[in-house]
Amino acid sequence: MKGCFVTTLERAQQFHENNAPTVQAPDFEYRIGGNKVVEVDSGDRELSFETLFEQDNDQMSISTMILDAILKVSL
Fold first, then answer.
1. Is residue 22 part of a domain?
2. 65 part of a folded domain
3. What is the pLDDT of residue 63?
4. Are 27 and 59 in contact (CB under 8 A)?
5. C-alpha span between 70 and 4 (Å, rounded)
6. What is the largest CA-CA distance in the chain?
7. Which of 8, 34, 35, 42 is the Cys-Cys partner for 24 at CB 3.0 to 4.6 Å?
8. What does the DSSP assignment read for 4-72?
9. Cα–Cα–Cα angle for 3, 8, 52, nearest 5°?
């Protein structure tokens, strides 16, 4: 996907502390169906993947749940 931007933990922490880095990923326009455009700003691009690795009280995240499901199927 062209719009993906994976950042470092340090940069993500700066965004969470409302102290955005001086150099940011550029805003991105994603075309859907040729005539519709979704505009994604730099902060959203940098923080969108954080939800995949954020853990809950049981130390589970989306990525660990997917891994657990794959391991259970392959047994």
1. yes
2. yes
3. 82
4. no
5. 24
6. 48
7. 42
8. -----HHHHHHHHTT---SS-PPPEEEEETTTEEEEE-HHHHHHTTHHHH---TTS--HHHHHHHHHHH
9. 65
Q: How many domains does the chain have?
A: 1
Report whether 25 contacts 45 (CB < 8 A).
yes
Is residue 25 assigned to a domain? yes
Which of 59, 9, 3, 53 is closest to 32 using CA atoms?
A: 3
Q: Which residue range forms the structural domain that includes residue 52?
A: 9-73
Residues of the chain with pLDDT below 50 are none
Q: What is residue 71's predicted lDDT score, i.e. its pLDDT?
A: 92
* Whole-number Å distance between alpha carbons of 10 and 15: 9
Residues in the chain: 75
